Amino acid sequence: MSLNLCEIFYSLQGESTFTGLPCTFVRLSGCNLDCAWCDTLYAKSESTPLSIEKIIDQIRGFGCNLVEITGGEPLLQEETPNLISQLLDLDFQVLLETNGSQSISNIDPRCIRILDIKCPSSNEDSFLFENLKHLTKRDEIKFVIGSRQDYEFARAIIIEKLSRRPKAGTHLSPVFGQITPKSLAAWIIEDRLPARLSLQQHKIIWNPDQRGV
């Protein structure tokens, strides 16, 4: 059993409610979308087949209990759920970041699933809203905001579909360099929106284009 791997690295978690915590990132190869603001285009083409056993060995080498499975789009690969379950059985805390275009119904519910609902400026419209039925209260949702139109799109979904979810796990993240955090913060405050302003901490600490952080 193997997966097509782009990279594995150890850094600080830059997004989600786990922001600031040391984390091992497993970036899998391949993606089915072409988001306008994508910052990991290299994950589409850089690929090395590696067995689940060897991936877990590398993860263990970092000595960190928190692991994020990301991409690309990790759920395009058949063995991703198996990797997640094996890590959970080994007492790792596992986060999965997915663009929400693939079903999460077969993902171990012990995993914290972070779904990215694409807004208009992404030029993608692929989210499976049936995934919302599979979410636990521990799972999280992210909207990447690049314009006022994006914000209004996200606000409508939050009010109409996510009002009963914990607001701490609903994230609005400004596209780096495209919209200011101050603008997005003002809109959230003005609307008393039950959501969290989330900044990409790794792009603030390090060069925004730097890999492996």
A few lines on this structure:
By secondary structure, this protein is α/β, with parallel strands linked by helices. Helices cover 24% and strands 24% of the residues.
Q: How is this structure best described in words?
A:
The protein is an alpha/beta fold and 213 residues long. It has a single domain (2-205), classed as TIM Barrel (Alpha-Beta Barrel). The chain has five helices and nine strands. Strands 3-1-2-4-5-6-7-8-9 form a nine-stranded mixed β-sheet. The longest helix has 14 residues, at 148-161. It is globular, with a radius of gyration of 16 Å.
Defining key terms:
single chain, alpha/beta, TIM Barrel, nine-stranded mixed beta sheet, 9 strands, 24% helix, globular
Regions with little confidence, pLDDT below 50 for 5+ residues: none
Run of helices and strands: EEEHEHEEEHEHEH
Largest sheet: spatial strand order:
3-1-2-4-5-6-7-8-9
Count of DSSP-assigned helices: 5
The third-level CATH topology is TIM Barrel
CATH class: Alpha Beta
The helix-and-strand class reads alpha/beta
Number of domains: 1
Fraction of helical residues: 10-25%
Strand content: 15-25%
Distance between the termini: 28 Å
Radius of gyration: 16 Å
Strand count = 9
How is the main sheet built? Answer: 9 strands, mixed
Q: What's the average pLDDT? A: 95
Find the CATH superfamily.
Answer: Aldolase class I
Give the CATH architecture: Alpha-Beta Barrel
Gross morphology is globular
